[in-house]
Amino acid sequence: MKKEKKRKYSKVKKPVNIYLLAFVGVAEFIIAPQLTVNQYLIKYILKLRH
Q1: Series of mean pLDDT values for 10-residue runs along the chain (50 residues)
Q2: Is-above-0.70 flag for pTM?
Q3: What stretches pass through the bilayer (predicted)?
């Protein structure tokens, strides 16, 4: 009985981990370009001030 419960838990846990990784990957893919654009904008504004 104990082994069956553990097996079910690991089977449930794996897809959740995959979904989390996919979500994080998508979030990074969306957020990273925005951050780089913001960095360029900040550098450009600082250059204009100087």
Answers
A1: 64 77 87 86 88
A2: no
A3: 20-42
